[in-house]
Amino acid sequence: MKGFRSILNAQHVARLYLENKSIDGISKRAGVSDELTRFAFTLALRGVHPNSLDSITDFRLEDVVGLLLADKETTQDLKDEFDEFRVLWRRLHDRERDRRDAIWRLELIEPRSKSAEPFLELLSAIRDADETDPIGEACAFGIDEVVALVPITSVSGSIDYVGYDDIPEPWCERFLQASAGSTATIRGGYASDWEKFVRLWTAEMEMIKKHQEAAQG
Questions:
Q1: More exposed terminus of the chain, fewer Cβ within 10 Å: N or C?
Q2: Kindly report the CA angle at 158 between 154 and 159, in degrees rounded to 5?
């Protein structure tokens, strides 16, 4: 799955393209290959982005020509690989969205409360899915193991960030779900948001454990 996280930023790539930025410039800014960049804005402009990107219909003739060239230069193998990724990503996205929603709702409920039961049951079902249908190369990793793998990138004159493609799945999706509404760069999420996610994840797991123990006792 590594590499295709950049495509999930296709909306930003398409905007840069429509501002007459070159493919080379976009790929350098995004930190991905020219080929991947071409494919990303091809998806974005065609409105087939897996994030349900709104179709972009108001672009000039030269943009249409550029789009057709990009499509021609995109290999079938890359398309097939992305289609496979998209199927996996959708399952992962839905699973982590439900997990995040349950966690946030449990935080508002006192242990031993009956209202916690449906969310504990949902989290139990999600853990079962993690075991029967593991998604991502780091599905068996704990948070500390993932932190050791993820580099924080510093750019002169900018804010430190973590590249989405540098966070192994399913942890990248977990980070994105927890950071919903936060600003980010085209390269990835801000390092401060990643560090906050790591810190809160441990606390959230402890909170869930307390709810489970209270329900069993």
A1: C
A2: 65
- Scanning the structure block, which residue is given the tokens 């890359």? 78
Higher pLDDT, residue 164 or 101: 101
Residue 138, token pair as written in the block: 């780091």
Q: What is the pTM of this model?
A: 0.71
Instruction: Let me know whether 144 and 51 are in one domain.
Output: no
* Whether residues 201 and 98 fall in one domain: yes
pLDDT tens digits, one per residue of 156-211 = 888 898 988 789 999 999 999 999 888 777 667 899 999 999 999 999 999 999 99
Structurally, how many domains does the chain consist of? 2
Q: 47 lies in which domain range?
A: 4-74
Residues 128, 104: one domain?
A: yes
163 shares a domain with 92 = yes
Domain boundary among 43, 74, 105: 74
Within this chain, do residues 108 and 167 fall inside the same structural domain, yes or no? yes
CA–CA dist 4, 92 (Å, integer): 14
How many angstroms separate the CA atoms of 161 and 152, rounded? 6
